[in-house]
Write a structure and sequence with these properties.
Helix content: 40-55%
Largest sheet: 6 strands, parallel
Order of helices and strands: EHEHEHEHEEEEEHHHHHHHHHH
Distance between the termini: 36 Å
Strand content: 5-15%
Radius of gyration: 20 Å
Bound molecules: nicotinamide-adenine-dinucleotide, zinc ion
Number of strands: 9
Shape: globular
Structural class: alpha/beta
Length: 353
Amino acid sequence: MVPRVIFGRGSFNQLNDILEPKRLNSKAPFIFLVDDVFKNNAWLTSRIPLAYDDKIIYISAAEEPKTSQVDELVEDIILTTKERPSGIIGIGGGTLLDLAKAVSIMLTNEGEAKDYQGWDLVKNEAIYHVGIPTISGTGAEVSRTTVLTGPEKKLGINSDYTPFDQVVLDSELTKDVPKEQWFYTGMDCYIHCIESLEGSYLNAFSQSYGEKAFDLCHEIFLDNNLSDEESQEKLMMASWHGGMSIAYSQVGVAHAMSYGLAYLLGTKHGIGNCIVFDHLEEFYPEGVKLFKEMKAKHNVELPQGICANLSDAEFDIMINVSLGMAPLWENALGKNWKSIMTPKKLKSLYQKM
Ligand code: NAD
Ligand code: ZN
C-alpha cells in the first residue's frame, strides 16, 4: 500500500515541505516527470519547488508508456545527474504516474524494463517516488503495478516496490481536464468497480473498496447534484478506492480485450475500455446498462468500426495478447474460462467494435 498520502484542495502547495526532508546527501536532485500538457502553464509549474540540480522533464501522454521509453529516460537521468537522484515525482495522469514508477524502479535494478514485466520480478527497492495525479480514474496513484508496452507484450511491472512512497491528492489539479477525457478516464474507474465486484476473485477487502467506488461513480456520473469541486474531489477518491479494489482482486473482460486493442491499434486505456465495455452486456448486464445511461447523460459518442478493416492476422495478434491475460479471464469467467472465451468467440466480439 501507499504509506503516505495527503489529500486536499491546494495541497500541491505543500510539495516542498514533503520533499525537502527526503533529499539525499543534502543536494541530490529530484526529477519531476510532468505531462507536457502543463508546459507553459505557470499556475502549475511555478509551484514545482526546484533547488540545486532538480529538473523537470516534460513528457507527452499522447502514447502510453513503453519499456523502451523508460530505458531511455533512465539512461538520460544517469548520464545527466552527478549522483543518484533523491526521488522521482510523476505529475499527470496514468501515463505519467506509470512512467514515474517504472523509472524509479529501473534506476536501482539492472537490465531493461521489459525484463521486469510480470509479477514480483523486481529485486531491489526503487528510489523514493511520489505520485501527483492531475486526472482521476485509473487508480495508478495507488496500485502496485506500472503498465508498460514492451516488444512482446503490454504488461505491468507488478511488485511490492512499485507503489508510490507518497501521493498528493489535490483535486484542483484536475480542473481543466477536457470533458471527453474526464469521461473516458472516469469510466476506467467505473469499469474497475464492475469487473472487481462481478469477478470470481472477489473478497471482502476488495468488495468494500469496490462498493464505495461504485457509489461515488453513481453520484458523479448519474445523480448530477454535485458542484464541480465536489465532483472532482469525489472522483479522486473513487479512483483511489477503485484502484484499491482491483489491487486485491483483478480486472476482467473489458481490460483483457482493451489490452488487445491497445497493443495492435494503440487505442488508449480509457477510451479503449469504453469501446469494449459498450459491447459486454452478455458478461456485465447491469454494469453495461448503467454505463449506457452515463454515456447518454454526458452526450459521449464512442468511435465505431475500429476493427472493421483488420486482417485475420491482425485479429490473431489482438486475440493472442488478450487471451494471454489469463488471470483477468479467470477472474471474469471462472476456472473454465478457456471453454467459454474461445478465440472464435473473442473474434466475434472484436468484430462488433
Ligand atoms: P493519460 O495520462 O494518458 O492522460 C490522458 C490525457 O489527459 C492526456 O492528453 C493528458 O495530457 C491529459 N491530461 C491529464 N491531466 C490533465 C489536466 N489536468 N488538464 C488537461 N489535460 C490533462 O490518462 P489516464 O487515463 O489517466 O491514464 C491512462 C494510462 O494509465 C494508460 O497508460 C494505462 O495503461 C495506465 N493505467 C495504469 C494503471 C495502473 O494501475 N498502473 C491502471 C489503469 C490505467
Ligand atoms: Zn483500467
